[in-house]
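This week, think about what follows.
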Amino acid sequence: SFDKRIKTILKIAKKLKELEINYKILILNSKKEKYEDTKEYDYLEFIKKPITLNEINDYLLKSNVFLDIQRKEQLGLTFRVFESLSFQKKLITTNDDIKNYDFYNSNNILVIDSKNPKIEKSFFKTPYQKVPEEILNKYTLNEWIKEIIKVTN
């Protein structure tokens, strides 16, 4: 969505374009008309209404890398992280804390600074390295529910 993260997203889009990486970044913004004449927004695709879950899944399946830009007040992992694990796709994120999780692999997850994102083309050239099943299973809904029940007993 169009919010304070747009500056970071624009920097990333410009860098991807410079690296000649094929990308698609959709920004939900019902007020797009305010930005139509601004050249810098040419790096992004604006949509005026949310896309369907089926469309989201199609994009996720076709993608090799997901983008996760944390909101300032956000703590913990976003849904995008779990999608990347589930779909076995690489992730670019501004969440530095992700390095503390057992599934973290610098080959699969690129942590960037939101003010000065550094992205190397080599990140896109190496294949995704599978996360071991025993680690992945810890992040399923079933395991999360078991953990909650264990904590409340």
Summary: The CA atoms of residues 110 and 128 lie 12 Å apart. The chain is about 35% helix and 10% strand. Strands lie at 26-28, 45-47, 65-68, 90-93, 109-111. The mean pLDDT is 86.
